[in-house]
Specification:
11 helices, alpha/beta
Length: 333
């Protein structure tokens, strides 16, 4: 497994191997989103077994962007201290600390946020249902600023990489996809219009934290619904986004109507999304993280050797056994 345990560089950021703990919700934060000692211990364990980088669970950039109770948050300076503790503990275990930021959009409930969810179009979440509030252009600009604010807080908290969650049916994904975006202004319609919100977020983040800070984007390259994103369309979108300042892309799948593709069940084949990651990597020549039922180091090595990805995300595997990378490196398979 020479490739899996070879180093890799994203910009100026050095990773000791190719194994990444992706963003996985822990629900360990306090009800107000503050990180606590349970969360610190959770991330200490995940980082202690030889993984190269740990990406935190999604942190909401705005109070109405929270999707569930006990979700981590980054929409106020009061959250910096707790997040700094997470970054510090990950780094102390020899892993690179990274943070994911996101907004739930329509994929939340008034029971959680105390108001109607925001959305690009008057289309409710297919699973939660309920009336939504369509974002105005002023509202969109305000959210772009909030993503920029969150990026500054991430930098202050000590994280070495920032990931924008643009998949899984959340707000950015809702703008990118014709399945959820039927706007007729400059933020809808063709690919350039649907990508505009994401482009403005990336550009605002770059203004705040500079061009050298590593920036990742997580995309649902396939949504598996009518009018949903396909790999071919996602490549066109990512070509636009990469030109705005991305360093790496994490290739996932699924949305609020197809959650089985977000967290794939056992009946799906292992590494079921690796081929789409490979298509994106080949088309764009951008560093790619593969994710999706990659639960075997030998399989991870195979994905790398085929040129389908540069980094391997192992979520449930590292939840079950944080020492998986260390054991694999020692040949204890």
């Amino acid at each position: 497994m020479k490739l899996l345990f070879s180093s890799y560089q994203i910009g100026k950021l050095q990773l000791k191997n190719r194994i990444v703990m992706p963003s996985v919700a822990s629900f360990l934060a306090e009800s107000d989103g503050t990180m606590n000692e349970r969360a610190v211990e959770h991330y200490r364990l995940r980082a202690s077994g030889g993984v190269a980088m740990v990406i935190t669970e999604a942190c909401a950039v705005s109070s109405e962007g929270v999707v569930s109770a006990h979700q981590a948050r980054i929409h106020d300076d009061k959250f910096i201290k707790g997040l700094a503790g997470i970054a510090e503990i990950i780094r102390s275990q020899g892993a690179v600390p990274a943070v994911q930021i996101h907004h739930g959009g329509r994929q939340t409930s008034p029971k959680v946020i105390g108001r109607r969810p925001l959305a690009p179009s008057p289309l409710p979440c297919p699973t939660i249902r309920g009336e939504v509030e369509v974002l105005t252009e002023d509202g969109i600009h305000e959210l772009v600023m909030k993503f920029g604010d969150a990026a500054e807080r991430a930098l202050e908290a000590g994280f070495d990489l920032l990931e924008i969650h643009g998949g899984h049916g959340y707000l950015i994904n809702q703008f990118l996809s014709s399945y959820s975006n039927v706007r007729e202004d400059g933020y809808g319609g063709d690919i350039e219009g649907r990508a505009r919100f994401a482009v403005e977020i990336i550009e605002e983040i770059r203004k705040r934290i500079g061009n050298d800070y590593p920036l990742s984007f997580k995309i649902s390259a396939q949504e598996f619904v009518e009018n949903g994103l396909t790999v071919e369309e996602s490549i066109k979108i990512l070509r636009i986004l990469c030109a705005s300042g991305l360093d790496v892309v994490q290739v996932s799948a699924g949305n609020d109507a197809t959650p089985e593709w977000i967290s794939q069940p056992m009946y799906m084949k292992r590494a079921c999304l690796a081929d789409s990651a490979g298509m994106i990597r080949e088309a764009l020549r951008v560093p790619v993280m593969a994710v999706g039922r990659i639960n075997d180091p030998i399989l991870a090595e195979e994905i790398l050797s085929k040129g389908l990805a540069d980094l391997i995300c192992m979520g449930r595997g590292l939840l079950a056994d944080p020492d998986l990378p260390k054991k694999a490196a020692e040949g204890r398979l």
